[in-house]
Amino acid sequence: MGPPSVDFSMDCVDLAKKLLGQVVCRRTQQGILKGMVVETEAYVGPHDKACHSYGGRHTARNEAMYMKPGTCYVYTIYGMYQCFNISSREDGAGVLIRALEPLQNIDLMRRHRSGYRDRYRRNAKISAKAEQKMRDTAVANGPSKLCIAMAITKSEINKEDILASSKIWLEGGRDVGEAEIAKSKRVGINNAGIWGEKLLRFYIKSSPFVSNARR
DNA sequence: CGTCTGATTGTCT
DNA sequence: GACAATCAGACGG
To answer: How far is the CA of A199 from the C1' of B13 (A)?
Structure first.
């Protein structure tokens, strides 16, 4: 695909914006999955109350955010979901990938999603509306949905170097100009005071593949 | 559209 | 023991 990759020497906020338009690639036994980043959030470091490194905490969970820029940080949330981040230059900082536009092996992504549903939501009735969305924009339009779709798990991907891994890497997509980028508050941040108000969520305005965050 | 709720478990804010 | 960077369905307007 396009030019090599993102420059990981830039700071967290710039990285969050620069990752928009880049293509995340994931090699699995069944094939290579690809999706373009359309939504990110910056977690800028230990001074950021919403960040898992807040207060300088350096625990087993968030270790990846203290590793080399470009290290994958995957953590479990709400018991049943995972989220995927890439560490940035600053100690304890990273960019949460919140949504992808599926590009390659989309059917395999859908199979991952429905397999997960079978396991964790066996009793749920699946509406026709949801089925239809799974066919188009709702395959990877959320931080945990994209992990399921792309087979990004803590056990396989946490602490992988995205600049050197054969399991996960970035390819150049298209250049997203500042004018195309919308900003908002980060999603799901409740007890972080002023840090919950900052506009550290970035997404491609025109993309139908961004998450359904209401805000 | 909105607000609410159940599902599920690793982590320690 | 309480909470959490989520998700999808249910229900009310």
So the answer is: 21
Strand C positions with any atom < 7 Å from protein CB?
A: 4-10
| 3-class DSSP assignment, residue A96 | strand
In whole angstroms, C7 C1' to A94 CA is: 23
Interval A153-206: pLDDT, tens: 999 999 999 999 999 999 999 999 999 999 999 999 988 999 999 999 999 999
Token pair belonging to A134: 């799974």
DSSP, collapsed to helix, strand or coil, labels residue A115 as: helix
E strands, chain A, are 23-28, 31-43, 72-77, 81-87, 94-104, 168-171, 181-184, 201-204
Rounded to whole angstroms, the distance from the CA of residue A180 to the C1' of nucleotide C2 is 41
Q: Which nucleotide is nearest to A63 (CA to C1')?
A: B11
- What Cα–Cα distance (Å) separates residue A3 from each residue in A24, A61, A170? 14, 33, 10
